[in-house]
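Per reviewer request, we include the raw input and output of the structure prediction for the construct analysed in the revised manuscript.
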Amino acid sequence: MDPPATSGPQEHGRHRPSRSLDHAERAEYERLRRTLGMRNRRLRLWGASLLLLLAVLMAPITVVATWVNSEVTDTDRYEQTVSPLARDPAVQGLIIDRVTDGLVHKIDVRKITDTLADILADHDAPRVLVDAARSLDEELKGGLRTGVRYTVARVVTSNAFAKAWDSIHRGTHTAATNVLTGEGDGALEVKGDTITLNVGTVIEEVQEQLIGVTLVGAEDIPGADKSIVLVHNDHLSEARDAARWLGAVGPWLPLAVVVLAGLGIWAAPSRRVALMAAGIGIAAMMCVLLIALAVMRQICLDAAPPAAQSQDATAALYDTLVRFLRQTIFTVLLTALLTVIAGYLYGHGRGAAAVRAAAARYVETAGHALARTGLKPGAAGQWLRTHRTLTTGVVIGAGILVLLLWNYPTPASVALVLLLVMVALAILGVLAAAAQRSNAE
């Protein structure tokens, strides 16, 4: 018996020809596609903005953390940082004054004058002369001060002291760690909320030079435990704790910033605009960081004890310790500005188009002149002309890689790498233009 007939089409699995959309359906389809595209673009814009914002806000923290980490972990870097302090006139003057005051204050001038008067009396000297000897306190103290100051100055300003200063910082636990942790016995120490400069080494050297050449006995010269307060601030402990944290995360923050910025640029609807936005944001944060350094400098000066030359020495100390940080900030600032300029030049603006056209014209002229000399790049030049975009990307990527691998880049190193990249691009462009001229002939 035959199965009952079923209603509906019997071509199951067979491709049914699709009919074309009418005008109304086509309009609805285009509207839905535009709506989905706008939503997708808005979502990418928000995600990219969030990633770039995080990268920009983390940039100054990264710079400071990297600087702290380098000062703590790299002994050579720290020696380069503190070495100028021993040769700075303001610091030398402070050490000379404080050591001189400490030594002279310890000397019992009255005991010396009484001894001298007793000696004169024992030798039947006139009464007037004996009384005059007993009243030489201030004159003797002034003479001692002059002699001691001369000896201290000779020690502090000598090359031997500068070398000893460097040796101390290399041989002991890094003084940067002392400043950050409050541990160790380096020349720079943190005691509570004060930063002190230990000048015990200077006093030991002065002891050796004074004993036996003055009226002062060895027991009257103070010991080597002598410190000078450079900065006192109630928030120094909090700053030290923050520095410890920055030193711990320092090695990882640069990678985090690069990854966040890269993801933000990749996710953005317009990668060129996102690149320029990242450069502008990071440059602005570097300017803010420079302003913060200037404010902190004034805070340190205000926190310096109101002693003679103390502010000058504190200023020298601050400027010397943060000079590599300031150098790093300028390096990042220059790199960010160059990134913004590069993003603009690859855009569609009139100025960017004019610059590109002028550069192409000069490169083409140079290539044609090279071809007229008889030099033919051959297949290599043809390959360069065909893969111009690839070679440009490789050269720029190599320049970026060099900067990333540079141990401690400076504005000069950034300028050097930029110059080398531009020269390399120009050479490749000239060779490609020469190959094009040779083929045309």
